Amino acid sequence: MDWNSLVANSFHAAFGVNAIAYAIAAIGLNIHFGYTGLLNFGQAGFLAVGAYGTAISIVHFDVPYFLAALIGMSMAVLLALLLGLPTLRLRADYLAVATIAAAEIVRLVIGSTVYARWTGGSSGFSGAFSNAFYNANPLPNETLHFGPVSVTPNRAWFMIVGWSLVAVIALLVWLLVRSPWGRILKGIREDEDAVRSLGKNVFARKMQALIIGGVIGSIAGIALVTGERAVLPNVFGTQLTFFFWTLLLLGGVARVLGPVLGAVILWLVFAVTESILRSGASAGWVPEALVSQSQIGLIRVMLVGLGLMLLMIFRPQGIVGDRRELAFDVR
Amino acid sequence: MSADAAPGPAPSTARRLHDVPTVPGAPKPDPILVADKVSRRFGGLTAVDVDHIEIQRGVITALIGPNGAGKTTLFNLLTGFDRADTGSWTFEGTPLAGKPAYRVAHAGMVRTFQLTKALSRLPVIENMRLGATGQRGESLWRAMLPFTWRAQEAAITERADELLHRFKLHALRDDFAGSLSGGQRKLLEMARALMSEPTMVMLDEPMAGVNPALTQSLLGHVKDLREQGMTVLFVEHDMDMVHDIADWVIVMAQGSVVAEGPPDVVMADPVVIDAYLGVHHDAPATEAEERQQLAEVESRLEKEFSSPDDDSEAAEPALGARDEH
Ligand SMILES: Nc1ncnc2c1ncn2[C@@H]1O[C@H](COP(=O)(O)OP(=O)(O)O)[C@@H](O)[C@H]1O
Ligand SMILES: [Mg+2]
Q1: Contacts for B71 with CB less than 8 Å, ≥ 6 apart
Q2: Would an 8 Å CB–CB cutoff place A183 in contact with chain B?
Q3: Which UniProt key words apply to this protein (chain A) (predicted)?
């Protein structure tokens, strides 16, 4: 077993691009589901419009990176309005269905050949759109080494910016959810008619929550493609949304740090299981006939699924959740 | 029998109801709520069809009627939780028809629900704080700047604690509302409604499913509201309680107002008896017979009112069943 590569892989998985982007996306989802009770099964759609809004602005219109990111985020505002205006006055399940459909429509449109002139079709954009971000890197141009872990300057720059972003967003969410505004959201989650009877404009608050969570999702999308230095439509499939749900439940719903912890642990588990399976396979412990090298990626997802099932059985509130909250039937 | 026999009504307002004729839709000397031609149909069923109704300011009005009479639907319409097919109504002179529920609450008319709506995963004190209106920190931008709302929050908390003491819920202040008993939830819902400092309180079966020990305290709180100058409209099944606290009673049957008057008058009204029992009684021949018949019917009425809903469960889920463990 190669312990050095295990440590290095684990570090990059737990603190790398994916963990950052997934953490941010799930913070947005936590606003929707954890605090407001909105069922958003299309968070990937918000990531997609953020990523494409940014990349298209840069590639086709030469917009500066930061301004382009703002454009990407305003696309998420539009998507939230489009989803929320017709559904937020209806029962919760209408939003759920609309979000699934909208996210798939977004993914199919950006990947279609019809708009390929703008979106690059199924091959998307290469990394050039993110040059401005990496050109702004103030770090010395040499790879950093911490024991077995080595980090390139670009990667280090992204991680610094990325985790700062996670911290700032988490702080804002923390401020919001402990305010009277956040109290209305939690009230809506429990029973929106009760909140209405107390003179609160429930529709407006739900709309605000949908927009804020969606914009945070779009930031995650921008972070993801900037970190990966590629924009591909198929990244934004339904499975992405379900990973966000998984890690949110894993970390703990309606806790500010739940999604952050969930993202780190999810990717850590991915990296560790993959390392163990791969070294096991190359050492001959895992017979090739049973599991081929190419199937290892799938096996680790199965293991994560199994782990989540065990967690739901033995710690249903997630890692930092409050068990008492599960004690009563909310409806 | 007269309205004077009913114990406890605020003398001035109750006396003013003295001259009000006991007919459906009777005009009141000082109405706070006036509704006209309010109707609501569900498919072929006319749930509410009220021609005219007035609620007197500063007194306790009971809304009674058999299950399915349309009392809850009327509440929903008046408070903006359901949309009326026809009709208009004013609250303190302001037209409210078609206004969303939160605006109705802002106007000062706040309601509770037949099926209690405690916000389970919020602590009792947070339930209370949510009830306060005009909170600065409810704006998204100010929410992020705690110094803009902290002072107000402290004042709200103080008021909430006071109310919790009054409703004897203070020991449960930091518990999740979901852990309260059914009766305690009813109390919490009422206390929470009062946080908005309403002028009129509409209570949909506040006593349903509450154990007898808490009932007295709930009754006391309802009377308190009147002492504090609020107008109360409440739905109740138990005739003893209606007798005990109501200054005026409005009877609904099959969507319409069929009778109104002081409790004693209404309970003796053959139309009301018909509405509840669905049978027509022969006109009494002698006075003695009339008295006997009345006594008979009254005792049957009381039984009907105070027995737990049995054949009515289809229209309204049983509250009693899930409460008070
Ligand atoms: N949402 C609804 N859809 C269809 N029928 C309804 C609905 N709400 C109430 N009803 C019907 O309207 C009638 C009046 O109901 P309700 O107002 O709850 O009566 P009450 O509160 O006086 O017992 C009942 O026949 C009930 O079944
Ligand atoms: Mg009812």
Answers
A1: B63, B64, B65, B204, B235, B252
A2: yes
A3: Cell membrane, Membrane, Transmembrane, Transmembrane helix
Give CA–CA dist B226/B235, Å, rounded: 16
Q: Token pair of B60, please?
A: 């306790």
- Does any ligand 1 atom lie closer than 6 A to the CB of residue B68? yes
The pTM assigned to this predicted structure is 0.88
B237 lines ligand 1 (CB under 6 A): no
The Å distance, Cα B41 to ligand 1 centre, comes to 9
Number of folded domains that form chain A = 1
Ranges of CATH 3.40.50.300 domains, chain B = 3-118+194-306
Give domain status of residue A321, yes or no: no
CATH of the domain at A274: 1.10.3470
Separation between Cα atoms, residue B201 and residue B198, nearest integer Å: 7
C-alpha distance across the termini of chain A, in Å: 50
Residues of B with CB under 8 A from a CB of A: 79, 81, 100-103, 105-106, 110-113, 117-122, 126, 129-131, 133, 135-140, 142-144, 146, 149, 153, 176, 178-179, 189, 192-193, 195-196
Whether A168 has its CB under 8 Å from any CB of chain B: the answer is no
Residue A255 contacts residue A33 (beta carbons within 8 Å): no
pLDDT at residue B278, as a whole number: 61
A187 vs B122: CB contact, 8 Å cut-off? yes
Please indicate, yes or no, if residue A284 is contained in any of the structural domains. Answer: yes
Residue-wise pLDDT for B66-125, tens only, equals: 989 999 999 999 999 999 999 999 999 999 999 999 999 999 999 999 988 999 999 999
Confidence of residue B306 (pLDDT cuts 50, 70, 90): low
| Interface with A, mutate which of B72, B76, B103, B140 (most A CBs under 10 A) | B140
Q: Do the domain assignments include residue A324?
A: no
A16-54, pLDDT tens digit by residue? 999 999 999 999 999 999 999 999 999 999 999 999 999
A66-to-A58, A131, A226, B105, B264 alpha-carbon distances in Å: 10, 12, 12, 44, 75
CATH topology of domain B3-118+194-306: Rossmann fold (3.40.50)
- Section B135-141 average pLDDT: 96
Task: Burial-class residue B147 by CB neighbours within 10 Å (0-12, 13-18, 19+).
Answer: exposed
Is ligand 1 within 6 A of the CB of residue B66?
Answer: no
Mutate to test the pocket of ligand 1, among B39, B42, B83, B313 (most ligand atoms within 8 A of CB): B42
**Residue A204 domain-assigned?**
yes
B72 lines ligand 1 (CB under 6 A): yes
Cα distance between residue A239 and residue B120, in whole Å: 32
